[in-house]
Automatic annotation (TrEMBL):
GO terms for cellular component: plasma membrane. This is Anoctamin. Pfam families: Anoct_dimer (PF16178), Anoctamin (PF04547). One of its GO terms (molecular function) is chloride channel activity. Residues 84-146 form the Anoctamin dimerisation domain. It comes from Aegithalos caudatus (Long-tailed tit). Keywords: Cell membrane, Glycoprotein, Membrane, Transmembrane, Transmembrane helix. The gene is Ano9.
Length: 728
């Protein structure tokens, strides 16, 4: 017997006869029958209803959406509608069928009349190909079968995988450049004069790092740290930052070309989302009136105000983390446990980073609800419009959640904490934390590394484990198979559909946001790999490793662990392209700021050309940055400490009169020296120069690479010409 084809399966609990839920369910199924749907009922622990749409629905669909020239040729023989279209049409009709109580399927699901509605994973040839070539770990480095993905999951999912594959492929170049930068830092710049001076400075006495129980310390203690800093903070980083700005542009431009090719191959150029939606509405109900576009400035203003408030909250959380670190540092230093007091700063930074990760996880959930609420306030007209609005909001919220503490570390840490004898304090009590003596960029490096590694490993493991475990649990809930034996042999002949439906029901459910989540995760990762990449050149490498795993993990989830997604049509990746372009611009600004403000690149250059021994005499043999460290430390007299600071004036048995700290201030009145303003001006000049050069290069790259390949343009051109000639 040929296997019956069912488009959708509805699942409901077994309600009592005559109960409200049972009546509502019957009303809904009657509405479907009126439309000519075939319905098959199978009873197990739940009730399963197989739904099959009548053929005339698809004929109408083809008629309404065919281009006029193909109407005359194929008026007699309708080709079969592809499965993806079939599922999409049936899904639309199911979602928009109204019962006599004016309830749709969505409302019935809320009232627990139906529990689930899903299309089936069938034993088709395509499904087998995908399982063999795509949804398994063995094919990690093979090309993805995009064409087959499209035939099984629809264009939207196929475009996501095409984009992800393309991004991963181009990450190889960024990862190599990042490795080269680190390698250059480890070899060429490892013998740098600056770190040598720090390692030799064993009689430069530094001011204590906290108010109580902290002793003076010697600069050469931080020797290893200085070497690490110089691995990332050198001339190669500047070149790498410019390279990444160009890379981000080229990636997007090349993706636009790729997309144009794909869209023509899939015949999507003439397709229009609005037209499709109207056609489906009319097929479902021929009396349907379209919902018109609306826009209210009042609503927009409210949404804007609420969004700004939310961003304020997110920035407030970043401040709370800063305060936590300052307070933790003070408390750990004064604690009686020697382990805590000795490594107070490291422990404070590490716990701070972990706390930050926890806030990211919690705030993601909160952002989600807030963005949905704001979206409902705007009352968007179509599904895609709603998705675009939601995307922009959630991305902005997620961006602030992920980046606010990085922004603080990069640009504010150690710049707003005053100087010895006059520290800026939280609530007049706790000192703000300072940068490490060898520069602030290492703090940023640690924070980036912790977040990227934690985020990628933990979220990947959770992303795979949760569906897997819940799938295993759902399998376990099967009822015992003893019943049929007791009833005698006549029930042995089991319906072939039953096994298939049950198997699909055991898989995890998918929702509208399943694909959205994947996009969001990769886009946030893309911002990590581009925005602060100057401080963490290994980011592209981590992203590359993550993506190779991610592609196959998503594939396995979609094919083996989740119910089949309702295939959607799409021409491109939608609003995400604009989001990526915005990130590209932010990346130029972010990297410019990191080099100008966070790193020591500018102060060293200013010293070399204006204050070093090279400027005074003609020393060709000498390294021009000699003496930089001594020049960058200011002198502080111990008698000027604040009264409540407890410091032992002895150090290694020597009475100490003055100590050094990182800043450019006079020794007598502690005001800024002229060199501070020189460096300040140089930082600004560099920032303006870097951004303009990088933006110009981006614009040139965007102009140089056409968005649509010639081949595609010519194909469309000849197509149009052929159609017009036929008309004539």
């Amino acid at each position: 017997q040929n296997e019956e084809k069912w488009d959708f399966v509805l699942v409901s609990d077994i309600h009592e006869m005559g109960s409200e839920k049972e009546i509502k369910r019957k009303k809904f199924l009657d509405e479907l029958s009126k439309k000519g749907f075939t319905i098959k009922k199978i009873e197990d622990t739940k009730l399963f209803y197989g739904v099959r749409a009548p053929q005339h629905i698809f004929w109408k669909y083809q008629c309404l959406l065919m281009n006029p020239d193909s109407r005359q040729q194929n008026s007699s023989a309708y080709q079969d509608v592809p499965v993806t279209t079939r599922i999409r049409v049936v899904h639309f009709i199911l979602q928009n069928t109204v019962t006599s109580d004016l309830e749709k399927l969505h409302d019935l699901m809320k009232k627990k009349v139906f529990e689930a509605a899903f299309p089936l994973h069938k034993k088709e040839q395509i499904a087998e190909i995908l399982k063999k070539k795509w949804a398994r770990w063995r094919v990690l480095f093979k090309e993805q079968p995009i064409e087959e993905i499209r035939c099984y999951f629809g264009e939207k999912v196929a475009l996501y995988f095409a984009w992800l594959g393309w991004y991963t492929y181009l990450l190889i170049f960024a990862a190599l450049a990042g490795l080269a930068t680190v390698a250059a830092g480890a070899t060429v710049f490892s013998s740098s004069q600056v770190s040598k001076e720090i390692c030799d400075a064993n009689n430069t006495i530094m001011c204590p790092l906290c108010d109580q129980n902290c002793s003076f310390w010697v600069l050469s203690d931080t020797c290893t740290y200085a070497k690490v800093t110089h691995m990332i903070d050198n001339e190669a980083t500047v070149v790498f930052a410019i390279f990444m700005a160009i890379w981000a542009t080229v990636f997007l431009e090349l993706w636009k070309r790729e997309r144009a090719t794909v869209a023509t191959n899939w015949d999507l150029y003439g397709w229009d989302e609005e037209e499709e939606e109207l056609a489906l509405q009319l097929i479902n109900n021929s009396q349907h009136e379209p919902r018109l576009y609306q826009h209210s400035y009042f609503r927009s203003a409210i949404v804007l105000i609420l969004a700004v408030l939310m961003i304020m909250v997110l920035i407030g959380i970043a401040h709370a983390l800063v305060i936590y670190r300052a307070v933790a540092m003070a408390l750990f230093t004064q604690s009686d446990v020697s382990l805590l007091s000795r490594h107070a700063d490291t422990i404070a930074v590490m716990t701070g980073a972990v706390l930050h990760y926890v806030t990211i996880v919690i705030m993601t959930k909160v952002n989600w609800h807030v963005a949905l609420y704001l979206c409902n306030l705007e009352k968007p007209r179509t599904f895609s419009q709603r998705e675009n609005n939601f995307t922009v909001k959630i991305f902005i919220f997620q961006f602030f959640t992920n980046f606010s503490s990085l922004i603080y570390i990069a640009f504010f840490l150690g710049r707003i904490n005053g100087h010895p004898g006059h520290y800026v304090r939280i609530a007049g009590h706790w000192r703000l934390e300072e940068c490490h003596p060898s520069g602030c960029i290492t703090d940023l490096f640690i924070q980036m590394a912790v977040i990227m590694l934690l985020k990628q490993t933990i979220s990947n493991i959770m992303e795979y484990l949760i569906p897997w475990v819940s799938h295993q649990l759902r399998k376990k809930q099967k009822p015992p198979k003893k019943r049929s034996v007791m009833l005698g042999e006549e029930e042995e002949e089991e319906d072939p559909c039953k096994r298939q439906w049950l198997k699909n029901y055991e898989l995890n459910e998918v929702n509208v946001f399943s694909l959205f989540n994947e996009y969001l995760e990769i886009v946030i990762q893309y911002s990590f790999t581009t925005i602060f990449v100057a401080a963490f050149p290994l980011a592209p490498l981590l992203a590359l490793i993550n993506n190779v795993i991610e592609i196959h993990m998503d594939a396995i989830k979609m094919m083996r662990l989740r119910r089949r997604m309702v295939p959607r049509k799409a021409k491109d990746i939608g609003i995400w392209l604009q989001v990526l372009e915005a990130i590209g611009t932010l990346a130029v600004i972010g990297n410019g700021l990191v080099i100008a403000i966070t790193s020591d690149f500018i102060p060293v250059q200013v010293y070399k050309y204006m204050y070093s021994p090279c400027t005074r005499e003609n020393h060709t043999s000498m390294d021009c940055s000699t003496g930089y460290i001594n020049n960058s430390l200011s002198v502080f007299h111990i008698r000027d400490f604040e009264p409540h600071t407890k410091v032992l004036p002895e150090f290694n048995g020597v009475q100490i009169k003055e100590c050094r700290y990182r800043d450019y201030r006079n020794a007598d009145d502690y005001n800024y020296t002229i060199q501070f303003w020189h460096i300040f001006a140089a930082r600004l000049a560099f920032l303006i120069l870097f951004e303009h050069v990088a933006l110009c290069v981006k614009l040139i790259a965007a102009w140089y690479i056409p968005d649509v390949p010639q081949k595609v343009k010519n194909q469309i051109l000849t197509e149009k010409h052929k159609n017009l000639r036929n008309e004539l």
